[in-house]
Amino acid sequence: MTDTATQPIGIFDSGVGGLTVMRAVIDRLPGENLIYLGDTARVPYGNRGAETVRRYATNAAAFLSSRDIKALVVACNTASAFALETLRQRLSIPVFGVISPVARLAATHSDTGEIAVLGTRGTIRSDAYQQALLNLRPDLNVHPIACPLLVPLAEEGWLDGAVTDQVLARYLQPLASTEVDTVILGCTHYPILRDAIAGATDALPLPKTTLLDSAHATSEAVAEALGEAGILNQASATPGERRFFLTDLPDGFIDTAEQFFGCSLRGDCEHIDITDTTSAAASSTTE
Amino acid sequence: MTDTATQPIGIFDSGVGGLTVMRAVIDRLPGENLIYLGDTARVPYGNRGAETVRRYATNAAAFLSSRDIKALVVACNTASAFALETLRQRLSIPVFGVISPVARLAATHSDTGEIAVLGTRGTIRSDAYQQALLNLRPDLNVHPIACPLLVPLAEEGWLDGAVTDQVLARYLQPLASTEVDTVILGCTHYPILRDAIAGATDALPLPKTTLLDSAHATSEAVAEALGEAGILNQASATPGERRFFLTDLPDGFIDTAEQFFGCSLRGDCEHIDITDTTSAAASSTTE
Asked: Which among B76, B147, B263, B269 is annotated as catalytic?
């Protein structure tokens, strides 16, 4: 184990959805020191242009790099689709996106060769999952479905009930005439809607379907790559240090964030401005 | 009529919802030259903190001021709630928000003295409509309802149907036990859901209710104030010049924008960066 091992892993997302990825990394690698950055002043990235997303992601990566991270996890599908190559060119540390790991898992898993990808309009339009899957297995038949209402439903906390069921039924209807056996939850918000999505796929005349989410697949990819590089923080018997930075922190926001993280964040979130990345620093601690 | 009369009116919103306000201004004052700015790189403002909203609104106002406007319409409820006083202190031209005009109309209109306000979570949390109404008529009983799913439903184009009806029924359910006779559509997106909202209020055991939207009330307030100041562009017999600036312009975006504006925008939208307001200028013309 090198000194690098004790450096933190940086995790960034446009908002709080990436906390589902951070949760998976904690569960898989409890000893790691972690720094989370949510660009909540500019969320959501999903409907923005590619150039804008690259600019925002570069700001975020610069902030995290200034805190001496050993690896960067881009826990945002839109930024993974549009900005990953840019970030890899700029940084000299491993950079992980959320698309490739779950695409690899899905390509291996599917028996029928038919895979559905659910995502925001921006993620689906980027074609990133479709390309990643077809690069791995050119024989696949991929069914991309843009589901722009799922993020607001998750943030509203309407995780089940008639409205959520009907929205899902409408979005998933095109799958009724397919042989899809694998569904990728291509948005970090979707794992908290997993039960409702499973209910909606079960209601369709499909083969037995498996839902795969990027959070778990990504945490496995991080563990494997850092292990191979010999920079896992395995010596520590105690849980790693975890810090949370948000670029905006409106009233009531912590409640939403905790729903994604699965436990308390109170007292742990710092509000920062990353627009000027050369001087990015914590300006205040709130809540 | 002074020279000021021919200067444009600036209209700004976080996104494209403010186009419903621009449409109402065009219908009421067809001869005016208008410049629209949609801060689509940072939309939505609804869930952001007050300080962040003031900073963004100040950027937007600086861009429009640099184009020699004679008046500014803040066609965004969140910015009207949080940033109006800041902008009035900084600018020496008339500044109109979208809250006061419709609040005045509602306070005059209601017979029962019970008024519902529908808005984003940010607008409702700001208490701006509630305060404006009670300042005008302290005897009013105001029922504020946060409806965060209505903007994504409008942007998805799901303007009617089972999902929209059920979302509205759930949001409006608390009104069933009231005597509300006036409903303020406190978000610039909501006018395009007017029919569905009317259906939902009709389904409740309420007195005959009237829906009031800020777009028309604001255009009346602008016409009245500029008329009193003698700076309306009444000499022109031809329609005024209209320009549209957006801080982000992703693929397919114009289609959504046109739904709010009610007619074609193709070829008219310019993409600009207002982060650095000192050098804000059109960088490219797209679509």
From this structure: B76
